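Supplementary Note 3. Input sequence used for the single-chain structure prediction.
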Amino acid sequence: MKRHASNHKAIFDDSAFAAQYAEKHQKMAQNLGKKYVQKLQKIGFKTGTILDMGCGFGGTLLFIAEHFPGATCTGIDLSEPLLNMAVANCRKMGLSDRVEFKKMDVLKLDYEDRWFDAVINLNMVHLVHDPLMMLNELARVIKPDGHFFIADLRRSWLGFIEKEIKSAYSLTEASEVLKKSNLSGGKILKDILWWYYEGQNE
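The predicted structure, written as discrete structure tokens, is reproduced below.
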């Protein structure tokens, strides 16, 4: 299947659309949160700094933050409507003392090298215009021996059912981008909907 353009903008600047998107993807965000809580627990993570690149409305990061009271968490995105939702939910959950959300471009992170202990990047590779630049920024800000978790939709025949899947990378295309990046130490995994690249920075 040939790759198509995404059905929506990379930056959600329409408040009504952002609200619909958040409502539609709330369950998915929590399920991803559960997945990454388990993965972080498995590697023995308890305290440290976590970055969510492309955090959206913050559902995944806030779920993770709840389960790691010793962690300082940062979510970045360019969508003001989604960030506003994230900040509001963060306040309701009483997590504002150690969770922050910032408007920032994933292609140009305003952080020093080797800053974060763990970085997650979910459903972003097919949306940004330069995924290699984004992956290299991730590689730059993660600490030596830090852990990264990248996941995105995988283009397949399911694109005939869910149109957004048509805009995703195939596993082969994703692998090619990952090989060109400065990331190392990861392993590529897949399921019917997603591909994953996870590991410990070398």
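Residues 15-200 form a domain with the Rossmann fold fold (CATH 3.40.50.150). Confidence is low (pLDDT under 50) at residues 157-161.
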